[in-house]
Amino acid sequence: MKPKVAFFDFTSCEGCQLDALNLEAEELIDLLNTVGIVNFREVMTEREDNYDIAFIEGSISRESEIPRLQKIRSQAKIVVALGACACIGGVNCLKNHLSMEEALEIVYGNDAKYYDTIPARPINAVVTTDYYVRGCPPTTTELLGVIKALLLGKKPDIPNYPVCVECKMADNVCVFERGMTCLGPVIRAGCNAICINNGRHCWGCRGLVDDPNVDSEKDILQKYGLTVAQVVEKFKIYNTYAEVAK
Amino acid sequence: MKQINVNVHQITRVEGHGNIVLNAKNGRIEELRWEAPESPRFFEAMLRGRYYQDVPYIASRICGICSIAHSTASIQATEAALGIQPSAQTLLLRKLLYNAEMLESHVLHVLFLAAPDFLGVGSVFPLVETHRDVVLMALRLKRLAYNLAEILAGRKTHPLSCVVGGFVKLPNVNELETIRERLGHALVDLDTVVELFKTLKVPDFIRETEYIALKDPKEYAFITGEIASTDAGTIPLSDYLEVTNEFCVPHSTAKYTKNKRDSYMVGALARFNINHNQLLPRAKQAAKELELVAPCHNPFMITVAQLVETFHVVEGSINLIDQILDRGLKEENNRIRVRAGRGIGAVEAPRGILFHDYTYDENGVLTKANCIIPTNQNHNNIQKDMEALVPTILNRPENEIKHTLEMLVRAYDPCISCSTHLLSITIK
Questions:
Q1: What residues are paired with B163 via a beta bridge?
Q2: Sheet containing B28-35: order of strands
């Protein structure tokens, strides 16, 4: 029996799921030979409640999403958070800086009463989460790597060192040297510094490394004449839920 | 007499969550609703207080499938507010990047989401066995679109190098030349798709409505031009709120819109109806072969109009690459001076016209955002189509009614997740 894989989306842009389909033809065929995809609303009509591995995209931002996620957890053997929203809360948590009444009022005005919203959170704030496929969006390579590891019964190998390590290997000029702020020193690698390779800075979409060296980040800021406030503004974009770097 | 109860909870093969509810008894419709109950995301609230350079990066996350459309609308709204005129080189690169998304999104919809309906299966996965050539070709076209975006902006979903003022990294000439060749091959692949679509039966249904799209006298408009309506003529971007007239309905987190009639349509068919004369030759030829003739009032033909547009964007991309290679790429100095102001950005997302309207303070911090999403503009038209369509098919078996209604919704290629992420903003 092929293991059954299901994809579910909560509050998100659904880009992670779509990118999951960005495969070379052979990769897709191999994948379909190895696993049975039984639930993937975005691309298939059939649905089944019997699955082994559930990939969850999106953060939890409505009361009604909590029981739905709990039900998925009780049915799946393995729950994997897919993408920044599910792993760390992601950009959805930017609204947490406002009161929920205020956010509703801003968007829906007098019609705010129709809507249900709670502060956004990652899925591990609601259910036990077994593995994380990080990034906004994750790379297809990493996703396939995680699926392969799970099929082999191994623990997926996700780096626990900062983006700076990969950025140096990519031969980039340091973002700080270019006069901009960057979250690379404290954010978990695995992206091969894609943002910096393409002219930007690290936005923090993969979340903090375990035990981030916040003091060293502060030293860097001091060296380049930057303030903590400037970095916190960048940090908030993905990592509001983590509430660190104070 | 028979009772019909159709209740499609979370329609599949669309982006986001939508429900169809139909209850009819003795040939009388008691309830017929298209619902968009997506979880609201509050982007307009989230964009407030952000620095202008971060705004397009965040706005891109409104939608994973049309992130380049949101990013471009956001960049253009910001540039309008700050008084920045993008260079000729930037515009060429932006149009090319835009084509990548239009191609990817249309291929995804035409071949992965809509085609299974016509071929009698529930998803693209069984087609890997039964129609392997078509699936391989669809994957090839999708990869091409992804690779084109990667060359220009690092990746397709949530692009990186395109920023306010221009591009922070320029594409490599060799890569452009290689992809130009692949675009040429793609035209051959697309011919095969046309052959397939000629054999498929598109439901016969006509309901005339108002069509709205961007119009540019110089070209088939995607990221430039003014608003054009089949009922109201040309309207400047600054008057977009008079066109959209958003209103809330209790069963949807998305807002609805109307202009001259009860509802209007945006998207590939609206663009085709308004701008068909400006399509490039291969696209015109495909329209002819697929019997798509303007004005077309059959919403099921939206999918066909998308297929016609894929020819246009592939041909257009080849032309753009030639222009870029001819003039040569050079590093530009995108120095930006921040000022207070308001700007409107309008683009044709794959699903239709998209507006971002921003106000910035003198420090370049966003104080107000309003975004109007194509699918929001189509929700009301989907509802009106259903009201016209259901009485004509009510004598059919319940399953067939359900399937026809799902096909109608899917034809619009609704992007419900993004339509409800961004709703209009009212500041106390």
A1: B166
A2: B3-8, B19-25, B28-35
Contact call for residues B207 and B297 (beta carbons, < 8 A): yes
**Distance (Å) of CA A107 to CA B71, B370, B379:** 20, 9, 18
CB neighbours (10 Å) of residue B251?
13
Indicate if the alpha-carbon torsion angle A186, A187, A189, A194 is positive or negative: negative
- Locate the DSSP E strands across B333-404: 341-349, 352-360, 366-372
B201 in contact with A, Cβ within 8 Å: no
- Please tell me whether residues B14 and B140 are part of one structural domain: no
Q: Which domain holds residue B186?
A: 43-421
| Angle in degrees, CA A61, A67, A69, rounded to 5 | 70
Q: In the structure encoding, which two tokens stand for residue A202, read together?
A: 């690290």
Whether residue B88 is contained in a domain is answered as yes
Note the pLDDT tens digit of each residue in A146-189.
Answer: 999 998 989 888 889 999 999 999 999 999 998 888 999 999 99
> Would an 8 Å CB–CB cutoff place A142 in contact with chain B?
no
The CA distance from A117 to A154, in Å, is 38
Comparing alpha-carbon positions, the chain A residue that sits nearest to B64 is A15
Q: Please report the pLDDT score of residue A125 as a whole number.
A: 96
| Residue B128 lies inside a defined structural domain of this protein | yes
Contact A91 B143 (CB under 8 A): no
Q: What is the pTM of this model?
A: 0.93
Kindly report the CA angle at A104 between A102 and A109, in degrees rounded to 5?
100
The burial of B164, by beta-carbon neighbours within 10 Å (0-12 exposed, 13-18 middle, 19 or more buried), is given as buried
Q: Mutate which of B8, B19, B35, B42 to disrupt the A interface (most A C-beta within 10 Å)? A: B42
Q: Note whether residue B373 is domain-resident.
A: yes
B211: domain CATH number? 1.10.645.10
What one-letter code names the amino acid at B402?
K
Residues B265 and B116 in one domain: yes
Tell me the C-alpha distance between A107 and B317, whole Å: 37
The rounded distance, in Å, linking the Cα atoms of B16 and B12 is 9
The CA angle B46-B52-B54, to the nearest 5 degrees, is 60
Cα three-residue angle B44-B47-B53, rounded to 5 degrees: 140
* Distant-in-sequence contacts of A147-150, Cβ < 8 A, 24+ apart: A147/A5, A147/A31, A147/A35, A147/A53, A150/A53, A150/A78, A150/A80
Asked if residues A142 and A194 have their Cβ atoms less than 8 Å apart, the reply is no
Q: What is the pLDDT of residues B391-423, one digit of tens each?
A: 999 999 998 999 899 999 999 988 765 554 333
Query: Which chain A residue has the Cα nearest residue B122?
Result: A45
What are residue B279's phi and psi, to 5 degrees? -65, 150
Kindly provide the ipTM of the predicted complex, given to two decimals.
Answer: 0.92
Cβ atoms B166, B87 nearer than 8 A: yes
Is some CB atom of chain A closer than 8 A to the CB atom of B367? no
Question: Are B155 and B230 members of one domain?
Answer: yes
Instruction: Supply the DSSP string of B282-309, one letter for each residue.
Output: HHHHHHHHTT--SS---GGGHHHHHHHH
Among B73, B213, B230, B95, which residue's Cα sits nearest to residue B153? Answer: B95
What domains are there in chain A, each with its CATH number?
Answer: 4-151 (3.40.50.700), 163-238 (no CATH)
